[in-house]
From TrEMBL:
GO BP of this protein: lipid metabolic process
Domain 3-oxo-5-alpha-steroid 4-dehydrogenase C-terminal stretches: 121-271
Alphabetical list of Pfam families matching this protein: Steroid_dh
Molecular-function GO term, any one: oxidoreductase activity, acting on the CH-CH group of donors
TM region(s), chain numbering: 20-39, 59-81, 113-135, 155-173, 194-211, 217-241
InterPro entries found in the cross-reference section: 3-oxo-5_a-steroid_4-DH_C, SRD5A/TECR
Subcellular localization: Membrane
Protein's UniProt name: 3-oxo-5-alpha-steroid 4-dehydrogenase C-terminal domain-containing protein
Domain of life: Eukaryota
Bilayer topology term: Multi-pass membrane protein
Main location: membrane
Length: 271
């Protein structure tokens, strides 16, 4: 156990994991421009013999997402405990861990409770998510544990504004999708499994929940200005922006009249 703790808190380990993390945004972007990640509306074309059914999809989601806060807080505790000197804990660090906890409380508790059902998830999707959340939590936790900073800076305040707007928008548009999913009466009338979401930024975009999460983590990067936070923001872009574009195309194929909504994929009125 002692050797494991030493390995986790070793700056060399952090440097190695961070070096690996640098390739993740490119991997996500390239991979998801070629193939759709096998979950949600894009999972039908993949076999789920190896994966989580609709009955166990929430378990997969929670265990995958829970890795990020558990690893982040565990890393912070171990790094600070192993330090030969007592490290001060700053207002900036408190802000970052609070935002992280708030986001993942929504992801691991509120989101599964409010979502009436979740699509089957391929085991590969779950593994990739678990590995990413572990790397991300470790790198951001290690950096936060040893980098105190003050919230009394313009970039921090701008970042907090962006994070708050992105988080609120993400939650709001997720709830619009939850309401749509649970509206079974219309599904029976139309015979369709899917419906066109309306309200909020759905007026202009096909996947505002994805774009909102990108804004959220760009804001987080502005708050702490760290390399791990930058990689998190870039990885979120690499993962969700291609998915938002694919979602836009998918709606166009599923609904003949979708073009009459005049929505864009990524940027309102532009693209």
């Amino acid at each position: 156990m002692h050797s494991v703790v030493n390995a986790i808190t070793d700056p060399q380990t952090y440097g190695t994991v961070l070096a690996i993390y640098k390739y993740v945004p490119v991997f996500f972007l390239v991979a998801l421009l070629v193939v759709d990640a096998p979950y949600g509306r894009f999972g039908a074309s993949f076999g789920f013999e190896f994966g989580f059914s609709k009955n166990t999809a929430k378990v997969a989601w929670v265990t995958m997402e829970m890795a990020s806060p558990l690893v982040l807080f565990g890393t912070i505790f171990l790094v600070r405990s192993s330090s030969p000197v007592e490290l001060a804990w700053s207002s900036g660090q408190w802000l970052c861990v609070t935002l992280w906890a708030g986001h993942y409380f929504n992801r691991t508790v509120i989101h599964p409770l409010l979502c009436s059902s979740m699509s089957a998830m391929h085991i590969f999707t779950w593994l990739v998510g678990l590995v990413f959340n572990t790397i991300n939590g470790y790198c951001n936790g290690y950096w936060l544990a040893s980098h105190p900073f003050s919230v009394d800076q313009p970039r921090v305040q701008l970042g907090l504004l962006l994070w708050s707007l992105g988080c609120a928008s993400n939650i709001y548009h997720d709830h619009l999708l939850f309401a749509l999913r649970s509206y079974k009466g219309k599904k029976r009338q139309t015979g369709r499994r899917y419906m066109i979401p309306v309200g909020g930024l759905f007026t202009w975009l096909s996947a505002p929940n994805y774009i909102s999460e990108v804004v959220e983590w760009v804001g987080f990067y502005l708050i702490c200005g760290s390399q791990p936070a930058l990689l998190f923001a870039l990885s979120t872009m690499g993962n969700l922006l291609p998915r938002a574009y694919r979602t836009h195309q998918w709606y166009g194929r599923q609904f003949r009249t979708y073009h009459t909504y005049h929505r864009k994929a990524l940027i309102p009125f532009v693209f």
